[in-house]
DNA sequence: TGAATTTATACCTTTTAGGGTATAAAAAAG
DNA sequence: CTTTTTTATACCCTAAAAGGTATAAATTCA
């Protein structure tokens, strides 16, 4: 099983934004319409998610998934 | 069923980069290790993909999926 | 401290993404 | 134009994501 990583870009972004708005995971789940379990797996860095669910959450923060140059953080994870 | 969109950021990016390198879908499939069908669905803008598969392809181009502010293109799609 | 709230883990079920392959359509090459 | 290559569509199958819920751990705050 691939390993989870709470510090991947998506997980980190979501958790940070949610906290900034002082929302609980339950509230974020309700407002975005995704399941509570999904919010949790997302924030805990589950390695495999469906893009439309992720975007459903990101949209709430005015964001979406797009390809960007690999970050140092990620490069470190890849052992490069 | 949600509608496909060949012009979404991920689809567009992948197709463009692949062409720049003069690769066929088959070649991209082989070198990245994802199925050929996946490459096709990706480039044709299937609305729902798994993030790790997408990243498996993007990695080949030195990129990865991250949250970015919503583009005008996407905003148009959302009818906003 | 202890009570209340928030987050994390575990189990089961339904749905669907992705792989493989075979075929058709379209594009490129000759 | 005809042939070859590339891309697109259609089918079945398997694996796993996402949902719901119940419980446990951790955090907050009185």
Automatic annotation (TrEMBL), chains A, B:
Residue ranges of domain HTH cro/C1-type in the record: 15-70
SUPFAM superfamilies: lambda repressor-like DNA-binding domains (SSF47413)
Gene Ontology molecular functions: DNA binding
Pfam families: HTH_3
Protein name: Transcriptional regulator
């Amino acid at each position: 099983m691939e390993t989870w990583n709470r510090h991947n870009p998506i997980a980190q972004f979501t958790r940070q934004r949610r906290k900034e708005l002082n929302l609980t995971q339950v509230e974020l789940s309700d407002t975005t319409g995704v399941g509570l379990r999904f919010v949790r797996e997302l924030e805990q860095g589950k390695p495999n998610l469906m893009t439309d669910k992720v975007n459903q959450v990101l949209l709430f923060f005015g964001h979406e998934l797009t390809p960007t140059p690999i970050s140092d953080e990620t490069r470190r994870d890849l052992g490069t």
